[in-house]
Specification:
By secondary structure, this protein is of the alpha+beta class. It contains 3 helices and 12 strands.
């Protein structure tokens, strides 16, 4: 069991859009090796995600997962033995997997501190959290209200409340400027 103490978290750089494929490929190789009684040193593979609320072309709201770090996969692995020497079989297995560009740190991978990993993993697993909107807004940006009493009216973002996920939008009504509070999910960016 002493070997488990050398397992650390590393970041793999992978081809963009290939994160899930790389994860499945590595998991397949882990299962294959375990079936043959081989311990390849890979403990866990994680693709950090967050819940977001998006709109389909029809305007329907859809909650989906979005990768927090596109092009990267976290892997907990015993890459070095107890004498701090690289384990060539593990190194080769990972480096030869299709879609993997390499470790962050190149030939000398740098492990991530445990606190950093815990923060990354916590981001995607928080229960009962309202999904974030797929779009982040900025002050002065022009938006179009898509729901409610002001539907299809264009306005300018003058206030952003991230905690409540509410925008203060300045709209022109009856010749004067009025600020209305609108939920993030009730607006879209104006297309000009």
């Amino acid at each position: 069991m002493e070997e488990l103490d050398t397992a650390q978290w590393y970041v793999l750089q992978v081809m963009s859009g290939q994160e899930n494929r790389v994860s499945k490929s590595l998991q397949y190789r882990i299962a294959e090796d375990q079936a043959n009684g081989i311990d390849n040193g890979i403990i866990e593979i994680v693709i950090p995600t967050e819940r977001i609320e998006d709109r389909k072309g029809s305007g329907k709201k859809v909650v989906r997962d979005r990768k927090l770090y596109p092009g990267y996969v976290l892997i907990k692995v015993r890459l070095f033995d107890s004498e701090d020497k690289l384990i060539p079989e593990t190194w080769g297995l990972i480096r030869e997997t299709n879609g993997i560009i390499g470790f962050i740190g190149g030939e000398h991978p740098v492990p991530l501190p445990q606190e950093e990993i815990e923060l990354m993993l916590k981001q995607g697993t928080e229960e009962n959290v309202t999904p974030k909107p797929a779009v982040e807004f900025t002050l002065g940006e022009t938006v179009v209200i898509r729901e409610g009493a002001f539907e299809n009216i264009e306005g300018t973002v003058v206030k952003i409340d991230q905690m409540r996920q509410i925008l203060g939008v300045s709209i022109n009504m009856f010749g004067s400027s009025t600020i209305v509070e609108i939920d993030f999910r009730q607006v879209d960016r104006s297309v000009k």
